[in-house]
Amino acid sequence: MSSSTPTSAEILRDAQPKRGGHLRVFLGYAPGVGKTFRMLEEAQHLKRQGKDIVIGYFEPHGRKDTIAKTAGLEMIPTRKINYRDVAFQEMDTDAIIRRHPAICVVDELAHTNVPGSERAKRWEDVQVLLDAGIDVITNMNIQHLESLNDHIFNITGVRVRETVPDWFVKCADEVVMVDATTGALLNRLKRGDIYALEKAQQAMENFFKESTLAALRELALRQTAHEVECREEPPGGAFDAFVPAREGDP
Amino acid sequence: MATDSPHRPSPDQLLAEVEREEVRKRRGRLKVFLGYASGVGKSFQMLDEGRRRHERGEDVVVCALQPEYPPEVQAVLRQLEIIPMLKMGADEIIDVPAVIERHPQVALIDGLAYDNPPGSPNCHRWQDVEQLLDAGISVVATVNLQYLEKLQDEVERITGKRASCTIPRGFLDRSSDEIMVVDAPAVDSLSREGSAADSATRLAEEHKLSRLRELALLVAASVIDRQLESYLRSHGMDSSWGVQERILVCVTPRSSAAQMLESGRRNADRFQGEFYVVYVNQPALSQEDRAILDQNLNYARQLGAQVEVLNGLDAAEAILKFAREKGITQIFIGHSMRQGAWRRLWSNLIERIIRSAEGIDVVVYPHQR
Asked: Is B327 found in the same domain as B217?
């Protein structure tokens, strides 16, 4: 649908009242649980169904299995932004909107953009895509949920700076848990699948302790259950009053 | 939940733990992919894990398959060795002797909850799996939530149905080394075509699926909570920073506790946590105080709290003892606005609780009475 003459479907769509895109968030509990992999698998599945889907941003992290999953998917080139003489790659939100796919895949929702970008946070870019009527599939880890910041600090001893506001996640149509056992995750780490081996050793002494991972995993499962429950009941209560209304499925 | 003290395992407990550990080492390990319905992608994820293990050099063999698969699952299957199942009339069963003879490191079983047809060596497939585990073969298997015996009541409440064949409580509790949730949206907003009118049947179906999904996530969370607790115990670590929120509201006869109770309920709900309300017995209550207390405790019960009346001359000590036993994460306590000696006494009590409540958050509520 990238041709300059609009198709009849596009005209019909544009004639309808403006409707925000759907948002699906894959929620994990640590780097390496397979969020990006799962997201791309989903993208491949939707592409097979004939959906017009592109990758808006993808962080390869040098993981072979994950990179292989991008095969055949259209990727919108990133934008280079220079900051203190270093070129950073950021998602090119304008280019995605010009391309206007039905669905866009965006890796790492909690990412903070480099100074000089239009928007400070990637979730703000995602909001722009949604407002443009593009469905978005994205992912984040539980420790990036703003309201859990203190709780996560108590569990991990790490103060997470990149956070996503709760209302943004509450707005998602779907929150899906990407699970992995802590044993499997530690094995991936030991094999060097997640970080280079020396960094992995460091990680294992801090964030990737088995008990820490188990606690984060439990938290992510409970949070996802909570998100499922929230979408069951009609919204109510003081908090929901602050949630910007988005049209879409109830 | 832990009925014993979370702090100090007895020698018997330690011994039992060591023995369990030894049995675990000899036996194969079981990993279960738990889904809330068919079609969430359990088979694919489980078989794909098998494929990855195979690529890393593990000896992986597929031992039980579903009758039909979509193309992406078939593509994974083509990369794996399969031990054909045995025909038993119209049914098929795992060829246990052949698998034990072949003795792979890992056996993949797609569908744990099948009943074997009459005349099979074992009545249930989980018994076949038990044999494989006993033979030192690790098993990776899929199962649907609906087939777990211990969840039959809850599942029936949601779906109105009970499963005919189930995995017994003991099987998963005893030997399930690992459980993993295969999650997927109950309503797929991205693939849904057009704007099909929301028929009542479809909405009811989606509602059921959502509730099953929630149940699956919470079941996995509680399994992990238990594992985490036993891990912390066996490593001599304090488990008071646990993830499961356990809220304790302390009520007194003199407090208007409604706000505190409601806040406690909300906080417990937020993470499907537990909600306790205690009252420390005080001698010689006036009739008026007794009435207010009963009112508070009744309201607590209405809100679904587990209400307990504690005894002890030292209220602070009684509250803290209870909090440690239950692994409480937050204590809510009221602070009287009244003047005089009683207030000083109470302030002192709150101070002592705050000082001694290591790892527990204490929230103090002002009371306007």
From this structure: no
CATH H-level superfamily of A21-242: P-loop containing nucleotide triphosphate hydrolases (3.40.50.300)
The ipTM, to two decimals, is 0.81
pLDDT given at position A6: 53
A52 within 8 A of A1, measured Cβ to Cβ: yes
User: How many Cβ pairs closer than 8 A exist between chain A and B?
Assistant: 107
The model carries a pTM of: 0.73
Q: Do B244 and A217 touch (CB under 8 A)?
A: no
Of B180, B213, B225, which is closest to A181 when you measure between CB atoms?
Answer: B180
Question: Does B12 map to a domain?
Answer: no
Band of pLDDT at residue B248, cut at 50, 70 and 90: very high
Instruction: Give mean pLDDT, residues B8-36.
Output: 79
Query: What is the Cα–Cα distance from B83 to B94, expressed in whole angstroms?
Result: 9
Is the pLDDT score of B151 beyond 50? yes
Structure tokens at B235: 């490593």
B172 and B101 part of one domain: yes
DSSP state of B133: H
Which residue, among B265, B320, B228, has the nearest Cα to B2 in the 3D structure? B228
* DSSP code for B117: P
Partners of A55 in beta bridges: A75, A105
Residues B28 and B157 in one domain: yes
Residue B64 belongs to domain spanning: 22-187+199-234
Judgement on whether residues B53 and B180 belong to the same structural domain of the protein: yes
Q: Taking Cα atoms as reference points, which of B43, B29, B65, B30 lies closest to residue B182?
A: B43
- Copy the structure tokens of residue B327: 């692994």
User: Chain A contact for B227, CB < 8 A?
Assistant: yes
- Give me A162's structure tokens: 């990149």
Looking at residue A82, its amino acid is N
CATH of residue B53's domain is: 3.40.50.300
What are the domain boundaries of chain A?
21-242
Percent of chain A surpassing pLDDT 70: 85
Chain A residues near any Cβ of chain B (below 8 Å): 22, 24, 45-46, 49, 51, 65, 103, 135, 137, 154-155, 173-174, 176-181, 183-184, 191, 210-211, 214-215, 217-219, 221-226, 228-229, 231-232, 248-249
